Amino acid sequence: MKCPTLAILLFAGIALPGALAAKEKKEAKEPAPPAPIGWLDLQAGARSFSISLPDLQKATRHLSPGALLPVFKTKEKHGAQLGQVGVLNLETGDSELGWVEINPAELKPPGDYPLDSELLRMLGTPYLDDFTADHTDIARFLVKQPEGPPALLCYVFTAPLSTAKLVIFTPHQGKFIPTTELNIPMNEMQSGITSVMVKDLVGDGSACVITKEPFREQAQTYGTIMHIRKINDGKFQDLWQAPIEFHNLSQYSSKMQILQPPEMNIGTPGTVTTGEVTFRPSGKGQEPVWKGKVEFYVFGRDKSVDSVNIEKACPWDGQRFAPLR
Fold first, then answer.
1. What is the mean pLDDT of each run of 10 residues along the chain (325 residues)?
2. Is 214:191 a contact under the CB 8 Å cutoff?
3. pTM: predicted TM-score of the whole model, two decimal places
4. Which of 68, 186, 195, 240 has CB 3.0 to 4.6 Å from 162, enough for a Cys bridge?
């Protein structure tokens, strides 16, 4: 399918209010915590993450499977072992410190993975600049490969410069080296990747990277697209993409027409598309299932004049998932 080129990373939801707000927050970034005492690998699944808010309240959210988190200290509370971890909130662009329940056996030694400063040094310009380095945050994920250790996938986010990228670091002779970068276009109204999840979908021993990436083409043409990618020989391989939100109200057709099959209406002029993607077992893996609706609008009327409901499975064909439309 032809979808707009995007500005995708844990599971996060809807688009940000804008990169500008995050940019302003980053100007007064808090001092970085000390070097981690270890790393927490969330391959086993999602986990609750508790943070303290400025109003002395606490908030809890879920961290997505596949995340690799730096652990700065541990403590015991009510018989449970807790670890203080650092997380990049992809929805807000903020770095957060909070607590998750851990099993001490899950902790990996601090030397197993490079620090942010080492990763930025390997990426070179512009991250060698002090200001850029100080205002760059990194979210890490481990992506299983058919052979050998997992690849280290990093979402590198620099709010003041409105730049972001996905970078694959592959293990080589005991070290991680950058192999492929994917730039994520951003602007004042566009936030980059708002969600990253690592999930085994194909059943061939490698994991897929599932991201939500907002886009905006015009004032009334915007939305969010879900991407599914694999890492193949140190490079990104696109497997599927589909909008989960698509407002296309910058222009209208002179005559409203509902196309067949119904999924052909997704993203057409004068429509608003909303949907969700679930995954259901299929063969050795899982396949995406898109479910949602398309509402039809005409110029000069605020409410939709018609709508169609859509549910479509997109099976694996041996190379990629079938397109939504």
1. 37 38 46 82 78 72 90 90 92 90 87 96 95 95 93 95 94 92 78 91 94 92 96 95 96 89 96 97 95 95 95 96 96
2. yes
3. 0.86
4. 186
